[in-house]
Design brief:
Blueprint (H helix, E strand, L loop, with lengths): L1 H7 L1 H24 L1 H29 L3 H49 L1 H14 L21
Helix pairs in contact: 1-2, 2-3, 3-4
Length: about 150
């Protein structure tokens, strides 16, 4: 956990947070708003760390001429890499499915708003005429107004 990492080596923890701060903030937002994607991305980050360590070890073994070690490390790196690629694909698939749902919802709102076009126009003209709150169009307040009225 983050607490254990901080307690174990505070200086290394500060450096790691500095290097990964934005990514950690993104993960915190994901945890709150999109927990399924968060779980997948956390596993992906762990696998990235494993791949990085194995990659360093593989380079060292190769440079030192330790062929058997290098072959073993490359096999391990391929296995971790396969899991990493699969995890990334899984995360992107979840994100795409969420986007698809959002687009479908937006399409339904647009269709509803299009059907209510005449009513919306009448409400807008009436609001400008009387000085009352101008209705939001598509969730956005008209420019130059301080309207807080819902659609």
């Amino acid at each position: 956990t983050l607490t254990e990492a901080r307690d174990k080596n505070p200086d290394a923890f500060r450096v790691a947070v500095g290097q990964s701060g934005k990514r950690l903030q993104s993960l915190l937002i994901l945890k709150r708003l999109r927990p399924a994607v968060y779980e997948v991305r956390v596993v992906e980050m762990r696998l990235e760390g494993e791949a990085s360590v194995l990659g360093s070890q593989l380079r060292s073994a190769t440079e030192a001429g330790r062929i058997d070690d290098a072959n073993d490390l490359e096999a391990k790196l391929r296995e971790v890499g396969k899991r990493l690629v699969d995890q990334n694909l899984r995360a992107r698939g979840l994100e795409l499915a969420e986007l698809d749902l959002a687009v479908k919802s937006m399409r339904l709102e647009l269709e509803r708003d299009a059907k209510a076009r005449a009513t919306t126009l009448d409400s807008m003209v009436d609001a400008y005429r009387t000085g009352s709150a101008v209705p939001h169009l598509g969730g956005r307040a008209p420019i130059g107004t301080t309207s807080t009225a819902a659609r």
